[in-house]
Structure to design on (717 residues):
């Protein structure tokens, strides 16, 4: 058994790496400009730079010696990109794809003061004479130069009497250690157990998760256990009355329950049971009474799929030889069902049950936000609506890791329940 | 004298499906909704071509909250817009979501499933790793996170649902391909010197097409349900009459007795999803040769 556990733990490792990688790719690569998503449009570039620095987004993605900075937007005169409109004495010509700067001009290039503690580098494609970051540029033909400088002083572009033209101008941070990338930042952050900081609440995400887990569990644990008991017993009823109108009724009922949108359960439940009949409070989280309706809705909405699943399992078992033997030797029908069949159906039931455990943590997104239960689902929906990136990433990541662990537990339960599994 | 007709898998399946009255009723319902969605698309294109605001978007506050009657069979909403024509537009969007997400998810699932099953070894290990990683992602939250990052609107819905729902199909296809790989027709094709791409996509794939079709029928309603949910939350469709948005608008008014928008929209969602679910089940029974008698 120990050997089997070790083997399964080893197999789990690649999936964990995959999960970390997928969340990284999703947020850091696919996500685009996270600072713009999280902070909105009306913030200063300095604030966005700070946001990036706090989350390691100002580093190269995987590996590299240079990283971008928001202090200067890349200028590419051939496509008219860049902030040259804001410069005095600068004219852009779309025909030649250049920006010409008039004589005796001094332009402060970065949008905010650079970090004095680190080095930066200009890359410039130019013609003419000028001084950039204290270095003289002088060339009659188009040429390209790189100028490296410390971030401590103001960076000007100064022209003298002679004309100066630009094709490209870009500013990059110099990275001392090329392995100090976004990916390594993310991995190190996770290894420290740091899940980031919520931009919305200005609090560590770990604290928010710790606060939300108890209300979520209070809602999901009853749904989980009541759901299992109800659907397994109904499936046994179906198996008992197989091919009668009762069985067929439950089959149709389960498909119908599956087809009703979750929203409808909530809206109809709140309207009919809470508002019209006044049986339950509509919204809030004060005593157990507030949880009755959401729990009931959670059970009913999951019932369709579960009942169908368990019924199929029970009926599969009903056709096996041991059942026929049991009947042949005169065991009563209820005893066959509740003792023989239920015991043998345990393995698929365990799978379905254990695999649902991560759901306990994620909470029920909709139920919580509609009934005002301050759990993780509520937190998640609000984080998505307010683009609170760190919270969403932490929830996705932990949900995925829990699923991996649940998978492992399922397999271990399998091995404990059925000795053949270990050998396979 | 009765002669035995040539029996193909599809002919057989169709004959079995025809015997199932519930399935035929569902098929009728699916055809009805499809025509409705096509009609909605026609209307939508017409107004786009005329470059005018379509009537189902035009507010007329004088007619707000008209109960169902002769002029408006399903009543009007808070801005005096006809619920029935908005419902038809909602069907158009639901179909768009169901079809586009299938066009993303099904090719991914089939491709990875096929190469994993056929080549085995390292390829198989990689695909299994890929799908177990994606299977670990917490479903709805992952979809919502993708939509949040891509931006509000239909594109976010397409990518969110499309990129997360290929796992189940991939697993099924992989299993089927592994079973078919050892069969004589594949061995014969190999002996003829055909390339792997040709064997996989021209020889094996047609034989496992029923898996794809059943998956499509069953994932379609799931995608529609998710779209309704996302639009309801305000992350999905923005200014078009999606069913989710309509439910959200109708929700508050329900408490003041404006029952019609809520009732008709939820009924439409329910019927569409139910019809697809039951049809998918019936198709699976009809196409699964193991149940042959």
């Amino acid at each position: 058994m120990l050997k089997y556990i070790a083997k399964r733990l080893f197999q789990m490792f690649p999936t964990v790496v995959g999960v970390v990688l997928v969340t990284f790719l999703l947020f850091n690569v696919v996500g685009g400009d996270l600072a713009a998503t999280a902070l909105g449009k009306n913030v200063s570039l300095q604030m966005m730079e700070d946001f990036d620095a706090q989350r390691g987004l100002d580093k190269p993605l995987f590996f590299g010696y240079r990283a971008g900075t928001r202090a200067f937007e890349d200028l590419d005169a051939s496509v008219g990109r860049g902030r040259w409109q804001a410069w005095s004495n600068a004219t852009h010509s779309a025909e030649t794809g250049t920006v010409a700067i008039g004589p005796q001009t001094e332009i402060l290039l970065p949008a905010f003061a650079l970090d004095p503690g680190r080095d930066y580098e200009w890359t410039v494609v130019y013609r003419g004479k000028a001084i950039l970051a204290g270095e003289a540029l002088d060339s009659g033909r188009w040429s390209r130069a790189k100028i490296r400088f410390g971030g401590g002083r103001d960076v000007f572009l100064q022209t003298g009497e002679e004309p100066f033209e630009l094709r490209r101008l870009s500013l990059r941070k110099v990275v001392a250690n090329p392995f100090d990338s976004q990916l390594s930042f993310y991995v190190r952050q996770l290894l420290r157990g740091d899940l980031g900081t919520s931009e919305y609440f200005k609090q560590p995400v770990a604290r928010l998760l710790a606060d939300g887990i108890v209300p979520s569990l209070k809602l999901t644990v009853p749904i989980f256990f009541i759901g299992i008991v109800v659907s397994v017993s109904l499936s046994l009823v179906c198996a008992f009355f197989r091919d009668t109108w009762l069985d067929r009724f439950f089959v149709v009922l389960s498909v119908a329950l599956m087809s009703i949108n979750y929203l409808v359960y909530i809206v109809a439940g709140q309207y009919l049971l809470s508002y019209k009949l006044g049986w339950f409070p509509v919204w809030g989280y004060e005593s157990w009474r507030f949880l009755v309706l959401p729990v009931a809705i959670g059970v009913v909405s999951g019932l369709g799929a579960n009942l169908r699943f368990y019924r199929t399992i029970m009926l599969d078992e009903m056709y096996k030889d041991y059942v026929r033997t049991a009947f042949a030797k005169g065991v009563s029908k209820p005893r066959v069902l509740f003792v023989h069949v239920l015991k043998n159906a345990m393995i698929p039931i365990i799978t379905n049950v254990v695999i649902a455990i991560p759901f306990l943590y994620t909470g029920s997104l909709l139920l919580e936000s509609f009934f005002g239960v301050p759990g993780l689902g509520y937190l998640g929906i609000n984080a998505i609506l307010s683009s609170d990136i760190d919270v969403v990433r932490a929830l996705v990541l932990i949900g995925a890791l829990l699923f991996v662990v649940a998978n492992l537990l399922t397999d271990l339960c399998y091995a404990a329940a059925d000795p053949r599994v270990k050998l396979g | 004298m009765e002669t035995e007709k040539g029996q193909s898998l599809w002919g057989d399946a169709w004959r079995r499906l025809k015997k199932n009255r519930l399935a035929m009723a569902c098929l009728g319902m699916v055809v009805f909704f499809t025509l409705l969605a096509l009609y909605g698309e026609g209307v939508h294109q017409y107004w786009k071509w005329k470059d005018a605001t379509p009537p189902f978007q035009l507010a007329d506050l004088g007619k707000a909250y008209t109960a169902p009657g002769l002029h408006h069979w399903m009543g009007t909403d808070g801005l005096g817009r006809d619920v029935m024509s908005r419902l038809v537009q909602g069907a158009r969007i639901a179909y768009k979501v169901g079809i586009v997400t299938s066009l993303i998810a099904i090719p991914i699932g089939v491709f990875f499933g096929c190469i994993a099953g056929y080549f085995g070894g390292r390829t198989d290990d990689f695909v299994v790793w890929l799908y177990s990683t994606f299977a670990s992602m917490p479903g709805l939250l992952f979809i919502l996170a993708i939509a949040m990052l891509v931006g509000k609107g239909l594109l976010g819905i397409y990518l969110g649902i499309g990129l997360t729902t290929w796992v189940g199909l991939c697993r099924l296809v992989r299993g089927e391909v592994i079973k078919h790989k050892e069969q004589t027709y594949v061995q014969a094709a190999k002996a003829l010197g055909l390339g792997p791409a040709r064997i996989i996509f021209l020889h094996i794939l047609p034989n496992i097409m029923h898996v794809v079709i059943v998956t499509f029928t069953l994932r379609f309603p799931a995608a529609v349900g998710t779209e309704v949910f996302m639009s309801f939350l305000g992350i999905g469709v923005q200014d078009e009459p999606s069913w989710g948005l309509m439910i959200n608008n109708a929700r508050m008014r329900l408490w003041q007795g404006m029952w019609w928008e809520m009732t008709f929209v939820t009924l439409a969602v329910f019927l569409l999803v139910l019809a697809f679910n039951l049809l998918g089940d019936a198709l699976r029974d009809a196409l699964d040769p193991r149940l042959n008698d």
Q: What stands out?
A: Chain B has one domain: 12-45+74-291.
